[in-house]
Amino acid sequence: MRRKTVTIRMFCPEIIPSIKRGGVAVIPTDTLYGIVARADNSAAVERVYNIRGRDPKKPMIVLIAEKNNLKVFNISLSSAQNKFLDQVWPGKVSVVLSCADKKWKHLHRGGGTIAFRVPDHAPLRAFLKETGPLIAPSANPEGLPPAKTIEEVRAYFGDRIDAYCDGGVLSGPPSSVVSLVEEEPKILRP
């Protein structure tokens, strides 16, 4: 795949074809830079695990454009879960939900749960409507600090990434993580 850099703010339509073909890209999110790949492409997901050196047992957060995208993952929400999601999405809160469907084993890594987030940035949600759900771990090798600039991301990964989108300096905290697997919400990462 051809590698290129696109310098625009947040919404990067030029890299959508690469992602749809199974490419791996770095984009700015509403929190940090993320390495993204289509959630429904198991080969692209594995490639992100290899690029990041991520523990293969640890699931990654999946960005979705809207709550209704959960139906793609065969997730049915209780009324309490629906109410909670309506309070925190769109936002910087990733929510862990049960998803035991074997079709998504490459995402839940056998654990039967996946963390989802609807970002609090309309252009990014529009991007997700075009690409479909994307895995989006932070843009850093496992154990190293998240990159704050596209130059730091390039220093980490170089040409192992198919496309880069420069969103300037991003130094916000990662998203909070809340589990809705049990009856009561449980904060996993504040």
Can you walk me through this structure?
The chain has helices spanning 16-20, 42-52, 79-88, 105-108, 122-131, 150-157; strands spanning 4-7, 25-28, 33-38, 62-63, 93-98, 113-117, 134-135, 163-166, 176-179, 186-189. The protein starts with a strand and ends with a strand. Residues 5-10 have low confidence and may be disordered. The radius of gyration is 15 Å and the shape is globular. The protein is an alpha/beta fold. The protein is 25% helix and 22% strand.
Chart the SSEs and their pairings:
Layout: E1 4-7, H1 16-20, E2 25-28, E3 33-38, H2 42-52, E4 62-63, H3 79-88, E5 93-98, H4 105-108, E6 113-117, H5 122-131, E7 134-135, H6 150-157, E8 163-166, E9 176-179, E10 186-189
Parallel strand pairs: 1-8, 2-8, 4-6, 5-9
Antiparallel strand pairs: 2-3, 3-7, 4-7, 5-6, 9-10
List keywords for this structure.
single chain; 190 residues; alpha/beta; DHBP synthase; ten-stranded mixed beta sheet
Report a brief summary of the structure.
This protein is an alpha/beta fold and 190 residues long.
SSE run: EHEEHEHEHEHEHEEE
> Care to count the β-strands?
10
Gross geometry: globular
**Mean pLDDT value:** 92
What order do the strands of the largest sheet run in, or round the barrel if closed? 1-8-2-3-7-4-6-5-9-10
Q: What composes the largest sheet?
A: 10 strands, mixed
- Radius of gyration, taken over Cα atoms and rounded to an integer in Å: 15 Å
Relevant CATH superfamily? DHBP synthase
* Helicity level: 25-40%
Judging by the overall fold, what is the CATH architecture?
Answer: Alpha-Beta Complex
Head-to-tail CA distance between termini: 38 Å
| Contiguous runs where pLDDT drops below 50 for at least 5 residues | 5-10
Instruction: Assign the CATH class.
Output: Alpha Beta
- Supply the number of helical segments: 6
Which fold does the CATH topology refer to?
Answer: DHBP synthase
Question: Which structural class should the secondary elements be placed in?
Answer: alpha/beta
Count of structural domains: 1
Strand content: 15-25%
